[in-house]
Amino acid sequence: MGLGTTSPLTVLGCALAVHSAAATGSHHFATDSSTFDYVVVGGGTSGLVVANRLTENRHNTVLVIERGYFDDKPEAIIPWYSTAVDTSVLLNPRSAPNSKLYNATHNVTVAAVVGGATVVNGMGCDRGSKADYDAWEELGNPGWGWNGLLPYFKKSTTFTPPNPDVVDRWNITWNSATYGKGPVQVHISNFQYPDIDTIWEGFRQQPGVTFPPGSSSGFGPGAYWSANTIDARGMTRSTARSAYYDPVNKTRSNLRLVIGQTATELLFDRGKPLRAKGVRVVSSFDAKVRNVYARKEVILAAGAVMTPHLLQVSGIGPASVLKAAGIKVEKDLPSVGANFQDHATVVLWFNLSTPSFPNSDSMSNNATYNATVWEEYLTNRTGPVAAANSNSIIYYSLAQVLSPSAAASVASRLLAQDARQYLPAIYSTSSALLRGFKAQRAILAQRFTTNTSSYTAQPLRGNGQSPSPLLKPLSRGTVTLNLTHPESLPVVQYNTFINPIDEELAVAVVRRSRRYWASPALQKLGPTERQPGAEYQTDTEISDYLKANRLALFASLAHPSGTCAMMPEKLGGCVGSDLRVYGVKGLSVVDASVIPLISGTSLQATVYAIAEKAADIIKARG
Ligand SMILES: Cc1cc2nc3c(=O)[nH]c(=O)nc-3n(C[C@H](O)[C@H](O)[C@H](O)COP(=O)(O)OP(=O)(O)OC[C@H]3O[C@@H](n4cnc5c(N)ncnc54)[C@H](O)[C@@H]3O)c2cc1C
């Protein structure tokens, strides 16, 4: 991670244990109770929200089962660490080889820690455009459009603006009306490197750019001051744990969280209809196996990679896959593990010959500066260590990446495709899945021709790294249990570029990024393209480079979603708009798996809002 000479681990005197041992004593199973009103699988982002809200009613008892532990390391607390991922709290399976990328495999970032991905994520906290969420409603989910979600975006968040002098100096904008008084603390950093001026001057020079107020307002394309999940009261990371668990842990005897416990199977009453009655759990401490039971519901919040896995090992999934793995089919549901989406990302790098000092590389290449700013953080909670990854981002519609007429032509070609040719095999055996994809495709084609939602973005830190995620992927991946070892980690197939239009548009995104870096303002930094490199000019050259270089094309931005999609069952859905799994009573899903069509930004704000809404839906059915 390049800390120069002074490691904050040393500065903090290693007072913080890796897995908070103090916490484990009270987070084992009690011997006396194995039945709760609700059993939540996964003490991550969505699981802790739902557990908190359900236990607001002291008559509800809730058990949260979490495979990870408490993480009180500086990496989980200090904002600067968001610039790199702490892999010690990840499961990190490798993806399956992708034939479109010369059989490359990729990291799959699966958090295993109390607080889930919010403990390791990049701390960006933006919302997609109104049109992104309205698409969910158009796909047959009443109440799940922007207007239905906005109260929950607000309910989950509190925004603390930067200091007034900082606001004036940088012209920072936000929209207070889109935040509430919720547990997740959101902030735009007081610290900005001087070259951020140049980054914004570059934004202003992009044709057609707009400057909507606030990255939380649902506007879509435009240049924004992007927010972070920072708790401005102490300049620490705000996580699902710090927001939804720590504040109530001591006072709610009806909430129990067990750690180091992995849910391995759902338990059913096999009447008609099938009903989930509990969960089988294995302990990482002593390998003991227990059954726990839910009087009302089992709620799955294990994330978009592990929730479909748990469903499949329990007999809910595509019958052909389950049979091949020797698993009894409880409910044939082809949607479990299909519709997998993430934000594949092209990454350009520029060498900067004339950056200002300090800049976002200074902490790693200047030991004196590094020591000074750590001291500053520990003394005053200010400076770059108190800041997260990036606050400056520009989002582009497809029409802004190409041209309005070229975007319209892409939309027409997309609609003319024989969809089955570019989808995973499971779509050829399920007419419902295929119908669902076509419904998604019609919406995407419409979005491609308007400026209502974003196709790509450039979050910039002022160094030469220039990532651009593909925010509207057409390719669909799969999460499938391992046929020979179903209990082991699932097989994750990203299928990046399985749809050739994604590949074509990735090239266009490289060109869009280059145009930004070629704008007059950016010349102040003296940029020279290092990745891919100026010698890659034709579509084929650029595309081949991306496909052959894992550092130039990330298959994932750690935004897995869609693997138990909220859509009507006749469209290949897995849960309805009430979040109940089709064909199974007493079983809901509340995590990123339910996202039917990935929204055009990072996911945490969206997952918090989904989980807040889920809690109200579950409460209402009593
Ligand atoms: C490295 C990384 C960087 C990211 N950066 C950003 C960012 O900058 N901005 C942003 O908006 N989003 C970001 N995201 C995405 C965002 O944080 C996630 O989409 C969101 O938090 C997912 O919430 P979830 O509830 O679906 O899953 P999670 O938060 O992952 O929770 C799932 C929980 O279930 C537990 N679990 C899984 N299986 C079992 C089992 N069988 N038994 C018991 N427990 C189980 C896991 O240990 C985990 O705690 C990032 C994610 C990662 C991983």
From TrEMBL:
This is GMC oxidoreductase. Keywords: Signal. The keyword Signal applies. Residues 303-317 form the Glucose-methanol-choline oxidoreductase N-terminal domain. Residues 1-23 form the signal peptide. Belongs to the GMC oxidoreductase family. PROSITE patterns: GMC_OXRED_2 (PS00624). InterPro entries: FAD/NAD-bd_sf, GMC_OxRdtase, GMC_OxRdtase_N, GMC_OxRtase_C. Gene3D superfamilies: FAD/NAD(P)-binding domain, Glucose Oxidase, domain 3. Pfam families: GMC_oxred_C (PF05199), GMC_oxred_N (PF00732).
